[in-house]
Please model this.
Amino acid sequence: MNPVLDGLSSRITDFGPGSTIPAGLSSHDGPHSLWVEPNRWLLSSERHFGGVRHRRGQGLTMGWISRLRNRDDGAQLVEFALLAPLLLLLVLGIVEFGWVFSQNNDVRHGAREGARAAAVNLGGPAILGAAACDSMDLTSPVTVEFTDGASGLAGEYGAVEVIATPDSLSGLGFIEVFLPDTLTSNVEFRLEQDSADWGDFGPVPC
Model:
């Protein structure tokens, strides 16, 4: 406790215009405004709590600011609730696009491997089909089809077609709407040997 303040607490309301101020105190800006010590107010409108100056009306102002901040927090939650589904859809779309792109690369790889096997007459339809299917890491339905040109002789041009149905990684129905129905790859190749063991066949499932 401050002895100076304790001694003046019972007389502070007695000071007014023309009042005699005790030694050691000086008036400042009218009645009821006194300098008790340097840079420390003893006022009816300003008080100190814990060494921090507190002005009349400051609590009301801070309460209004606090309520305004609470309103801002509520608005941010509403905005997030509105944007969260769109952000989730965007992320899932990116993941699904990457997954379909990977499946498409598998389909193209399978068609190329089948063409290499057919160009050198590696074997019959079962062997050529396995060469194409085994090179793909797909869980969705896939079919392959081989053609050996007009005569099947060396120098002719044959073709391999691989068709796959892409599947969804997330399994959400509204994502499949944006996916292609089928993934197709056609590879044309030159017969290095006669297609004695296979000829045209397909489409056959993997």
User: Anything to note?
Assistant: The chain is about 40% helix and 20% strand. The longest strand covers residues 157-164. The CA atoms of residues 26 and 35 lie 6 Å apart.
